[in-house]
Specification:
The complex is a heterotrimer of chains A (about 210), B (about 375) and C (about 230). By secondary structure, chain B is of the alpha/beta class. Chain B has helices spanning about 40-45, 70-75, 95, 100-105, 110-120, 140-150, 170-185, 195-200, 220-225, 230-235, 240-245, 295-300, 305-310, 320-330, 350-360; strands spanning about 1-10, 15-25, 30-35, 55-60, 65, 80, 155-160, 190-195, 205-210, 215-220, 260-265, 275-280, 285-290, 310, 315, 335-340, 345-350. Chain B is built from 15 helices and 17 strands. Chain B has a 6-stranded mixed β-sheet. A 4-stranded antiparallel β-sheet of chain B has the order 2-1-4-5. In chain B, helix 5 (about 110-120) crosses helix 6. The chains are: A mainly alpha (about 210), B alpha/beta (about 375), C mainly alpha (about 230).
């Protein structure tokens, strides 16, 4: 607690790194997973293939992925790009299943009505189905964001930056106050990001509040 | 004008939803497709806006085979009302109504302006425009659904059991609204329902579908009631079609009998013989209840009017049908129906015998 | 690329498998941490989730417990070691923070999503509350409960690697030591092993999920979805 207050500027710098490492993959992952998920939603075999691949992907422990990825792409383990690619893969793996499920949740009757009054397929997807799928999708996005934040924190055991370094440093130096500060900082960060996404979701779905 | 030319719809598993349907929906009329569930009425209607394509046969609109028309362009020109309104939940009411004009390229602002007018036309308070569908009642949502269908002023309107999901009181209002709207707009309407009374009330022509998707009869409602084509149609219409036919007969010329009226204050002074009745009227002259000799006795002993008199039956309004006249007579405790004028003042009594005499006199019409 | 060959060679040498710090021992330790954490998590989370789902009370707890996911496991682990020394307790507790939320969420959602008509009928038949829970709700809730178990196990197996940072055993040993002494093929050995272990456990649990599904019941959520 006291440590945190006396090291706020370091905390802020580390937090920026941490956020960059967690959220950039989230955005890139969304940009990939939403079109991909939308594409496979109505194609059962492709959907099964992507779901199974995603499941396997998601099962690979993050530390393992950070270590293995440099063998496949030209990065080194501790490169920011390495971490971001790994986390993007996780984000896509999680969302490529969640996106079709969210799209499935939109009532068939509403989609039928939209077709009947004259929406074309793409317009219907973008203007009707996606907005209505948003609430379900937001829930998944929140979990992905928080998971990414903890994966970056865990990564500090192999040297990845961010607020997790306070854990490793504090442990080496036998400073429990630093560790506690790190816990608080990451906790606050995760809650803040989670709340921000939730509020963003609420703003984007004004019709849900109205009852 | 909508034409079905030997249209059949058969599915892969062998079910025949529509079997060799041929009929013409005249322009500017309201045609009802009616029948039990699974009879193909909704499937047939959905072939008009190409939500379903026929397996055989041709559906044409204004002479053009719609199979050659771009489905989306076709749908933008046809209004469609669904059972649960089918409003888009994430759009405000005004935007729901403005959907089709916007899809057709109109600017959102001008589309919204016209939408306000359409809302008024279907009888909705403009204050509801900025709300979301979830905030409206079922009846209000249905009206919005109709407004949305009318917004781009399409010549054709398709309505799929639009009033089935609301309670009877609301349904009655919506049906009346529908008739009023059609008398103003003269659209070509195809209306699907499973309720034969709704069909008879609303339709200029009624198409009765049977199991297996076969058309059983296509005629004006009166025709249906007086000359059902077969046992199925007769059975579907139901037992009292003779009585229901009376709603098409005008009651002008029915003799009005004298009714003895009495104000509430004068009840105690009344002398009634056995089997004699008097109509108690309210201070404004409108009918309240019937009272007989026993009731007068009760009233004299201190009972209230409410406990001494018996509530009256239905009223016969000016310009009413023979059906209303007969019902007024049959539902009255005294045997005499109460006829009133536009201000609900009692003008005379209707006797069931007179109604029957008039019906018999009209036989052959 | 010769890292991969080195790693595979290492795995292929039987001498590396046996002995107190051999591969088999490390796998055993890793499984031990995982099993302990998941077991105790289940012990707490499943009854709690069933209770909340059945009675409908204290649903705020589910959201609150979800907030636990925001607590960094590594931090808790290292703090625990600093405060209470080395041993099994700190990693178990830290990993339980990971295991409890999905198990609680799965148990709660499983019971809460059972068709209320079925529950109502059970009560009307004369079942006691416990019987309603055991016979009507739990069978229907099983796929989601097992789904929660699957998510929990996956996350714990993956994160148990950090125990090695606190001088404990487990497959994380290879990862962390390998990087520390810059013998990257060792890190790769750890990565391959922990991935294989995770995949195996996951496959076993998928089988369990499928077996637990009552006939004719297609319950979504029996695989780890994002909020499983």
């Amino acid at each position: 607690m006291r440590y945190l207050l006396t090291h706020l500027d370091t905390a802020w710098l580390l937090a920026q790194i941490h956020l960059r490492l967690s959220l950039v993959p989230l955005l890139i992952g969304l940009a990939i997973a939403v079109p991909l998920g939308g594409y496979v939603q109505r194609r059962p075999t492709l959907r099964r293939v992507t779901t199974v691949t995603a499941s396997i992907m998601f099962t690979i422990p993050s530390l393992a992925l950070f270590v293995v990825l440099p063998l496949i792409i030209p990065t080194r383990i501790l490169d920011e790009a390495n971490v971001m690619v790994a986390l993007t893969l996780y984000t896509v793996a999680l969302l490529v299943r969640a996106v079709p499920e969210a799209l499935d949740a939109v009532p068939a009757e509403t989609l039928d009505a939209a077709t009947a009054i004259g929406y074309r397929r793409r317009a219907r997807m973008v203007k009707v189905q996606l907005p209505l799928a948003l609430p379900v999708l937001i829930a998944s996005i929140r979990v992905v964001a928080v998971t990414n934040i903890s994966m970056v924190a865990v990564g500090s055991v192999i040297g990845i930056g961010g607020l997790g370094t306070w854990f490793t440093e504090g442990y080496q130096a036998d400073k429990s106050s630093q560790i506690i500060a790190g816990i608080i900082a990451i906790f606050v960060l995760a809650i803040a990001v989670d709340t921000a996404i939730m509020l963003g979701g609420r703003l984007a779905t004004p019709w849900r509040r109205a009852t | 004008m909508i034409t079905f030319d030997h249209v059949t719809k058969k599915y892969d598993d062998g079910t025949v939803a529509v079997d060799d349907l041929s009929l013409q929906v005249p322009e500017g009329t309201l045609t009802v497709f009616v029948g039990p569930s699974g009879c193909g009425k909704t499937t047939s209607m959905r072939m008009i806006n190409r939500m379903i394509d026929p397996s055989a046969g041709i559906v044409s609109v204004d002479g053009r085979d719609i199979a050659a028309v771009d489905p989306v362009a076709l749908r933008l020109g046809i209004g469609y009302v669904l059972q649960n309104a089918g409003l888009l939940p994430h759009l405000k009411v005004i935007d729901n109504v403005a959907t089709v004009p916007v899809l057709k390229g109109q600017s959102r602002r001008s589309a919204r302006q016209s939408a306000y007018q359409v809302l008024e036309r279907v009888g909705l308070d403009p204050k509801l425009a900025k709300r979301y569908p979830a905030q409206l009642s079922g009846g209000q949502r249905q009206r919005v659904g109709v407004a949305r269908a009318l917004a781009a002023d399409p010549p054709i309107l398709l309505m799929d059991e639009p009033f089935s999901a609301v309670d009877p009181v609301v349904r009655e209002e919506l049906q009346a609204e529908m008739l009023r709207l059609q008398s103003e707009l003269h659209k070509t309407i195809v209306f699907v329902t499973h309720d034969i009374d709704e069909a008879i009330r609303l339709g200029d022509k009624v198409a009765v579908f049977g199991r297996g998707g076969r058309l059983q009869q296509y005629a004006a409602p009166q025709q249906l009631l007086s000359n059902p084509a077969n046992d199925f149609v007769a059975g579907f219409i139901g037992a009292d079609r003779g009585y229901r036919r009376l709603q098409f007969l005008d009651g002008t010329g029915l003799p009005l009998r004298d009714i003895r009226t009495v104000a509430e204050s004068a009840i105690d002074a009344l002398e009634l013989g056995a089997g004699q009745w008097a109509l108690v009227t309210k201070p404004d002259g409108s009918p309240y209840a019937w009272i007989n000799a026993d009731g007068v006795g009760l009233h004299r002993r201190g009972k209230s009017v409410y406990d001494s008199a018996i509530a009256g039956g239905s009223l016969y309004p000016p310009g009413g049908t023979l059906r209303l006249a007969l019902d007024a007579a049959l539902s009255s405790p005294s045997g005499l129906g109460v006829a009133v004028d536009e201000h609900r003042q009692v003008i005379g009594g209707i006797s069931a015998d007179d109604v029957l005499a008039m019906i018999n006199g009209r036989k052959g019409t | 690329m010769n890292f991969l060959q080195q790693a595979l060679t290492y795995l292929g040498t039987s001498a590396n498998w046996w002995g107190p710090s051999g591969i088999a021992a490390r796998i055993g330790e890793h499984l031990q941490y995982t099993a302990a954490a998941v077991f105790f998590s289940a012990l707490i989370a499943i009854p709690l989730g069933l209770y909340i789902g059945h009675t409908g009370r204290a649903t705020w707890l589910v959201a609150a417990v979800n907030a636990l996911r925001a607590l960094p496991t590594l931090g808790i682990l290292l703090l625990g070691v600093l405060l209470w020394g080395l041993g099994l307790v700190p990693p178990t507790i830290a990993l339980m923070l990971l295991g409890i939320p999905p198990l609680l969420a799965g148990s709660y959602a499983g019971v809460a999503n059972v068709d209320p008509v079925v529950v109502d009928a059970a009560r009307a038949m004369g079942m006691t509350e416990r019987q309603v829970l055991l016979r009507a709700e739990i069978p229907g809730a099983l796929p989601l409960i097992v789904g929660g178990l699957r998510t929990a196990t996956l996350q714990v197996v993956a994160t148990a690697t950090i125990a090695a940072y606190a001088s404990l055993g487990g497959l994380g040993r290879y990862l962390i030591d390998g990087i520390k002494v810059r013998q990257f093929y060792l890190a790769l050995v750890g990565a391959l092993l922990v991935t294989a272990l995770a995949l195996l456990l996951d496959a076993a649990l998928v089988l369990a999920a499928r077996l637990s599904r009552p006939a004719g019941y297609d319950a979504p959520g029996s695989s780890p979805t994002v909020d499983g």
